[in-house]
C-alpha cells in the first residue's frame, strides 16, 4: 500500500496507479477506451467513490456551520428534506433564490441560508480540488455525491415547466454552439457529432441521447486519472479550461444552463442514474 | 388553363392548413423556447466567469468569431472579405523573414500542450504564462508517424513536405496557415496560433513549418519499425 506525502494510506491513489499502468503498459494508445471499459467493469464492485457518498451522508445530517443546523430542511425541488429522485430532476428553478440551480448550486444556497456558511468559504480554496495527483476530498463534492446517489436507478427527467428553466435550456444551447476562447472552438465543434478523436481520446457526443446518457448518468464519478470524485461542473470546466476561457464558477448561470441543456439531451436515453460512476478521465 | 390555376391555390391552402394544424399541436405539446441573443449571453457570461484580471474576459469575444457564430460559419461574400483582410493584416513574420526554422524545435512545439489555460489562485493545472507554449498539434492532426497519439479534427499531415516540396510558395502558405488559419478560410475550425494574445511566437511558427516540410524531419520519413 502506497502512502501519500502526509503519511496516510491512500487506496484510491494505488488503484489509480494500477489503472494507469494497465492503460499505458498493456494497451496501445487508441485501444485505451476498451481496456478502461474492462477495468471499469472490474472496479464497479468496489468503487472508491462510495467513500465520498458515505462521507456526504454524514456531513448532510450533522449540525454544522455558524447556525449549527443540518441540511435536513434543504429543499431540492420535491419538498424540504426529500432526496429520493431529487437529483434526477435538476437543474431546476427555485422560487426562494429566483434562480435555476444545479445540485451543487442548490447545496451552496442551503449551506449559506440554513447553516450560515459564507459562499466564498465553500467555493474557495477547499473546492479547487485541482491537481490531477491531488486526491484531497472536499465537502461540497461529498455532499453532491450523496444527494445524487439518492436518484440511483432513475432516469433524468429535467423539468421545463417554468419559464426560467426554458430560458436556461435556450441559453445552454446558445452557449454550447458559440465559438469562443483562444482555441476558436465551441462545445459542439468537438461534442456535436460522432467519430471525433482528440489526441487519441474518443470524444462523447453530448447531443446524442445514447452517448450523452451514458456519460451524464455516471456523474458525480470517481475519476481514475485523478483518484478523486468529480461532478458535472468539473466535467464542463475541464473543457472550458482547454478552450482557454476564464474560470467557470460552480453553480453559475452558464454552468446551470450548460448542465440543464446537456442533461436534457441525455434524458431521452432513459439511462438510469448510477452514481458514483467510474471514469478513466474527466 | 383557368381551371388548373384555381386548383393550385386550393391545394396549397389545404397543405398550409395541415401544416398549421401539426405545428400548433407540436407547440401545444412542448412550450416554445425563448429566443436567446448575444446580450443575454454577455450578461450571463459576465456573471459566470471568474476573472483574475479584467482582460481575461476578452477571450470570450472576437470580431471574426462573432460573424462565424451569427452565420453558422457561413459568412456572406462581404463579411468574408472583411474577415480575410483583418486576419491577413494580423500575420507577423520572424525578424529576418526566415520562415523555415529549426525542425527539431518545431517537433517539440507540435507535441507540447502547455499554454493559455486560466485557473484561479491555487489551481495547479493552469499554465504558467512565463513558460514557452506548445501548439498541441496532435490534438487534431496525425503528423509524425512515430508519435503514438493523434486526433482527427484536422486532416492527417503525415508526409506533408514529401508531398508538397520546399518552394517559397509552400513555405509561406504553411506559415500563414499555422499563424492564422482564418486569413485563408474565414471560419476555419483551426485555431489562430500566432499573435500576442495567442499561443505561438513567429519563430515557433517557423520552427513548426520546418518540422512539417524539411526532408530530414520524421514527418517526411518512413515510420520506424
- Which class of the largest domain in chain A in CATH terms? Mainly Alpha
Number of helices of chain A: 11
Low-confidence segments of chain B: 1-6, 21-29
Net shape of chain A: globular
CATH superfamily of the largest domain in chain A: Cytochrome c-like domain
Percent of residues of chain A in helical segments?
Answer: 40-55%
- Domain count of chain A: the total is 2
Question: For the terminal residues of chain A, how far apart are their CA atoms?
Answer: 25 Å
Low-confidence stretches of chain A: 1-31
CATH architecture of the largest domain in chain A: Orthogonal Bundle
Report the portion of residues of chain A in β strands: 5-15%
Largest sheet of chain B: none
* Radius of gyration of chain B, CA atoms, in whole angstroms: 25 Å
Total E-strand runs of chain A: 8
Describe what this molecule looks like in 3D.
The complex is a heterodimer of chains A (282) and B (225). Chain A has 282 residues and is mostly helical. Chain A folds into two domains: 1-46, no CATH class; 47-279, Orthogonal Bundle (Cytochrome Bc1 Complex, Chain D, domain 2). In chain A, 43% of the residues lie in helices and 7% in strands. Chain A has helices spanning 11-26, 32-43, 50-61, 103-113, 119-123, 139-149, 163-176, 187-191, 209-216, 232-242, 253-267; strands spanning 92-94, 99-101, 197-198, 201-202, 221-223, 228-230, 247-248, 277-279. Chain A has a three-stranded mixed beta sheet with strand order 6-5-8. In chain A, helix 4 crosses helix 6, helix 7 packs across helix 11 and helix 9 (209-216) packs across helix 11 (253-267). The longest helix of chain A is centred in the N-terminal third of the chain and has 16 residues, at 11-26. Chain A is globular, with a radius of gyration of 18 Å. With 225 residues, chain B is mainly α. The longest helix of chain B has 28 residues, at 2-29. At the A-B interface, helix 7, strand 3, strand 7 and helix 11 of A face helix 2, strand 1 and helix 3 of B.
Amino acid at each position: 500500500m502506497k502512502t501519500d506525502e502526509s503519511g496516510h494510506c491512500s487506496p484510491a491513489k494505488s488503484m489509480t496507479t494500477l489503472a494507469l499502468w494497465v492503460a499505458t503498459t498493456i494497451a496501445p494508445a487508441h485501444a485505451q477506451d476498451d481496456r478502461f471499459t474492462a477495468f471499469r467493469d472490474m472496479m464497479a464492485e468496489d468503487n472508491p467513490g462510495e467513500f465520498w457518498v458515505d462521507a456526504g451522508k454524514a456531513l448532510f445530517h450533522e449540525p454544522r456551520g455558524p447556525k449549527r443546523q443540518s441540511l435536513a430542511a434543504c429543499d431540492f425541488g420535491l419538498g424540504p428534506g426529500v432526496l429520493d429522485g431529487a437529483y434526477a430532476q435538476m437543474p431546476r428553478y427555485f422560487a426562494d433564490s429566483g434562480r435555476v440551480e444545479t445540485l451543487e448550486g442548490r447545496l451552496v444556497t442551503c449551506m449559506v441560508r440554513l447553516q450560515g456558511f459564507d459562499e466564498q468559504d465553500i467555493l474557495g480554496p477547499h473546492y479547487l480540488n485541482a491537481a490531477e495527483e491531488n486526491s484531497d476530498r472536499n465537502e461540497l463534492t461529498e455532499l453532491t455525491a450523496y444527494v445524487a446517489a439518492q436518484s440511483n436507478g432513475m432516469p433524468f427527467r429535467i423539468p421545463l415547466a417554468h419559464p426560467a428553466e426554458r430560458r436556461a435550456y435556450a441559453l445552454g444551447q446558445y452557449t454550447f454552439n458559440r465559438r469562443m476562447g483562444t482555441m476558436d472552438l465551441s462545445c459542439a465543434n468537438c461534442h456535436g457529432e460522432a467519430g471525433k478523436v482528440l489526441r487519441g481520446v474518443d470524444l462523447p457526443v453530448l447531443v446524442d441521447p445514447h452517448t450523452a446518457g451514458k456519460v451524464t448518468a455516471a456523474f458525480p464519478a470517481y475519476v481514475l486519472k485523478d483518484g478523486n470524485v468529480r461532478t458535472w461542473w468539473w466535467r464542463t470546466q475541464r473543457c472550458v479550461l482547454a478552450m482557454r476561457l476564464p474560470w467557470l464558477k460552480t453553480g453559475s448561470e452558464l454552468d446551470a444552463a450548460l448542465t440543464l441543456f446537456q442533461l436534457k439531451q441525455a434524458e431521452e436515453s432513459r439511462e438510469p442514474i448510477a452514481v458514483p460512476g467510474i471514469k478513466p478521465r474527466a | 388553363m383557368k381551371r388548373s390555376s384555381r386548383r393550385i391555390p386550393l391545394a396549397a391552402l389545404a397543405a398550409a392548413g395541415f401544416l398549421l394544424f401539426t405545428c400548433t399541436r407540436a407547440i401545444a405539446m412542448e412550450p416554445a423556447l425563448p429566443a436567446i441573443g448575444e446580450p443575454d449571453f454577455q450578461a450571463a457570461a459576465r456573471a459566470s466567469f471568474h476573472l483574475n484580471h479584467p482582460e481575461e474576459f476578452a477571450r470570450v469575444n472576437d470580431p471574426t468569431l462573432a460573424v462565424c457564430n451569427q452565420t453558422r460559419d457561413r459568412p456572406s461574400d462581404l463579411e468574408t472579405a472583411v474577415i480575410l483582410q483583418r486576419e491577413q493584416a494580423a500575420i507577423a513574420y520572424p525578424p529576418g523573414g526566415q520562415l523555415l526554422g529549426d525542425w527539431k524545435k518545431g517537433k517539440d512545439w507540435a507535441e507540447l500542450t502547455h499554454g493559455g489555460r486560466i485557473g484561479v489562485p491555487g489551481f495547479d493545472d493552469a499554465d504558467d504564462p512565463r513558460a514557452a507554449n506548445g501548439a498541441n498539434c496532435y490534438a487534431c492532426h496525425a503528423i509524425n508517424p512515430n508519435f503514438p497519439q493523434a486526433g482527427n479534427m484536422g486532416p492527417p499531415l503525415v508526409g506533408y513536405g514529401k508531398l508538397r516540396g520546399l518552394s517559397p510558395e509552400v513555405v509561406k502558405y504553411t506559415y500563414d496557415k499555422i499563424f492564422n488559419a482564418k486569413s485563408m478560410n474565414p471560419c476555419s475550425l483551426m485555431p489562430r496560433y500566432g499573435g500576442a494574445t495567442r499561443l505561438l511566437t513567429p519563430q515557433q511558427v517557423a520552427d513548426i513549418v520546418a518540422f512539417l516540410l524539411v526532408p530530414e524531419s520524421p514527418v517526411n520519413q518512413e515510420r520506424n519499425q
